[in-house]
Amino acid sequence: MPIQYYIALASALFCIGVVGVLTRRNAIIVFMCIELMLNAVNLLLVAFSKMHYAKAAAAGAVTTAGTEGQLFVFFIMVVAAAEVSVGLAIIVMMYRNVHSVDVNFLNRLKN
Amino acid sequence: MILVWMIVILLIGGLLCWLTARANEHAAKWVALVTMLIDAALICGVCFTQRVSSINTWIVDIKTQWIPAYGIGFHLAMDGLSMVMLLLTFFLGTLAVLCSWNEIKQRTGFYYFNLLCTLAGIAGVFVAMDLFLFYFFWEVMLVPMYFLIAIWGDTNRRYAAYKFFIFTQAGGLLMLIAILSLYFIHAAQSGVYSYDYFDLLNTTLQPSAARWIMMGFLVAFVIKLPMVPLHNWLPDAHSEAPTAGSLILAGLLLKTGAYGIMRFVLPLFPQAAEAIAWWAMLLAVIGIVYGAMLAFAQTDIKRLIAYTSVSHMGFVLLGIFSFNAVAMQGVVMQMITHGISTGALFVLAGMLKERLHTRDIESMGGLWSSLPAMGAVGMLFTMASLGLPMLGNFIAEFLVLMGAFTANVPLTVIATFGLVFSAIYSLRFVQKVFLGPSTFQKPLPDFSAREFVMMAALSIAIVWLGVYPQPVLDMVQHAVQAVVTK
Amino acid sequence: MDSLQLQALLPFIVLASASVVIILLIAARQSHTVIQITGFLMMCLVVLAMWYVRDVLPRAIMPLLVVDGMAAVFTGLIVFCVLIIGLFSFIYFEEREENPKEYYILIFLGTLGAAVLTISRHFISVFIGLELLSISLYALIAYLRNRNNAVEAGMKYLVLAAMSSAFLLFGMALIYMDTGSMDFDGIAKQLQTQGHSPALFVTGIGLMMVAVCFKLALVPFHLWAADVYQGAPVPVTNFIATVSKIGVFAVLVRFAQAVQLQSYHFAVIIISFVAIVSMVGGNLLAIKQQNIKRLLAYSSIAHLGYLLVAFLPGNAAGIEAGMFYLFAYSITLLAAFGIVTMLSGRQADADQLEAYRGLYWRNPLMGAILTVALLSLAGIPLTAGFIGKFAVLNAGVQQQLWLPVIVLVITSVIGLYYYLRIISTLFAETQVIFPKEKSLHPLFVAGTYGALLVLLILLLGAGIFPSAVIDGIKNFLCQGFRIINF
Fold it and tell me: How many structural domains comprise chain A?
């Protein structure tokens, strides 16, 4: 499959994520959208990693090209998990304070 | 070394004031007075021992590295012009301490600290020969002056202090960009990164570059001077500041602008300055007439004096841009005599305010009968300010007009009319304040001994400069010659 | 990894172990005081370790990290900031009900993240460093969880920072596709060959710039700054304002140096645009603020804009200027927020301007320190901020970046207005009697005052004798430049 398909799919996922973060009011859904963005990037990285490997292999060498991309995916997954754990904790605190997970309640900080 | 000492003594004195006031509120003013007297003695010592001659223009010269990474040096030097300005600085500085003696009752330590720091900055401006250092001192005198106005000023002090600070800072930053541009152009030509005045003098500039860079310098200086469209900060700052603040503003801070033009703008950019000379003279003349007219319309005594400053500083600008030695000597004389006469008027206004608790001349009147000595002195300095012969200002204005006449006849003629206006506002001032029916019934105290000493010193100075100005003219002759021949 | 590489990483290993040590201490139920002192000593140990390993620098730890002179400067600055913030944290959290111990784990983890950013030369290490910093910050901002503000600020920062990280990753992925490499030198090498597509590269850089601008709170990605600064506990605000910005700027500088970012026209345009709108926007938004934390947030937006002007030239002078500016800005903000910390009470932070009315007369030392810090932010001479601004202007004028330089000058005059507003509040009269604060452990009160005094001395010292700092940065950078092509 040509690489453009992967890029298009990942971009679409990423954009859905961005739109979701900007428009949804439920904090948990906002969070899911952020995860969606991160996963879009993961998809891209895996695809590119495969692409670079294929390019190098086509040139005939035994190569490690492309491993970085796959490695990076693991780091992103780990970090995303950490981010979610802290994020959910904050959402729980928010629920305790305002009894809602609606982000529109977050409007007290003003001059 | 003596120049460094002068500045350091002021700073140490300031710190001592700050510290001693915590123990005793009265100690601070004595410390401040002693500091000023030491400095005045130092400069008088230099004045009597050193002679300026055409070979030895620069009497004192000290130069070391400061921030070598940027080619910034610590370079102080003094020629005749600087020496005259320093004499004026320490003379008026001493008087500023004296006239705050009873006026400032709260927070005296911090007050004298700021006062002495301002004077240190002013002294630094008059002797700094490294452009970065000059800018440094230029800004250093600003902050304590801001505090003097903002803390010890009158009712509208905050507004006046903001305006003063922001106007000056805006000009200052433009000057900083101009200095940097000059620095890099010089570095590109000679390969030497230096802010030194004497190095930068040798820079050759493209006419367009010279014009822009000169504008940067000029804006900073004419804001301080002030020239007419940029004079807006001056009446507010002068009228809201405490007496010593007004004295220093009118007597010294305005002079730094004139000094800057003479020291930097003309020698560094002779062609570019000549190109705008006509416009500068035009604005100067507008300033003379406009300042005089506004002074006539004021009812606030300090505002009135402030507008006379605008008018008088117009003569300074006129003289500077006439480019001849006579006018230039007149400019220096005008700087000194204006410092003394306007300073004296501000001190007088402060004394009146202390006694009457008002600055409104409509509510004064007939004070001569209750305050004869003050009336006489007030008369003397009003006459000085309108340019009566035998008093210093006459010499100054006469020399300026004589010099300007050779440069531009029509503008000089209009400027001469400014003198007529000045007679009108001066007489109105005397009329309203000292003559007419008396409005105050209770007896008012005339000069105390301290006030008498101050006024006597100022009166002697103004009369002496009017009768025998030759020593001053001799002192600045070589410096002026150097500016004009460039 | 050989032993020399391990040695070069020693400071970072010590830094990482600091959090572990704190966890163990908490497990052993030690008191806040013990944890505070241990944390302080661990930070001192990091500094000692840096001194110890100075000879093995510069050294690359392939493929992720490189420890060189630039990293040493930035890390040193970060550790210094954390030392001071740690001291301030004690008195701040000791007054609050909540358990303050875990705070130190988070703050040291965040510090580690920022330190990793300064030494990373690979996308993976950049990402790890950044997330280490961000995730600690989410928790730190929301640390005082019973205050609704804190949770709100934490939530806002969480959503926006996570989104910006996603942008960063997307940009990285595109550049990876374009060049097939993730380490900076590999990317730079690929860019020199013809086989890459500019469109992908431009998009990638653009997306990464979004994330960087977000982290540095530059306009148009500044919306979180004011809310987060206001909602977070004061020491955390201080941490965000200094440590996180130093880390992100360090990685920006290193990446730009590797790929010669400033040689691309589009990048220069983007950065200039961001710098200009940040300077204008930050200063304009700050004018009307009554809340000092929000005001400092907007002013820091403007300051990061000034910093970008130094980043624009992309030469050694620019980087030096940027480093000096960051140094000056950091110690200034440390001092300013230190005062805010000292004044904050049990219930709420001292963030309203009213809380500062007449501070100078109530507590001269604190008033003086805050005044100097504000003057330094405004870039007035005698303070480090002036030399910083001068260095930035120097770099800008040298490259003839007239538009950013002029905007810088104009906006700093605007900025002056609101700094003066705070300063005049500090010196205003006050009748309000402020309740006597609860007496804390005298050792820490003394320590906090000591830290404030050190900052004051640094502020003035770097303003009057900046040579030592400038030369230090230069020396370290020379080490750094040797390593670029290895």
Answer: 1
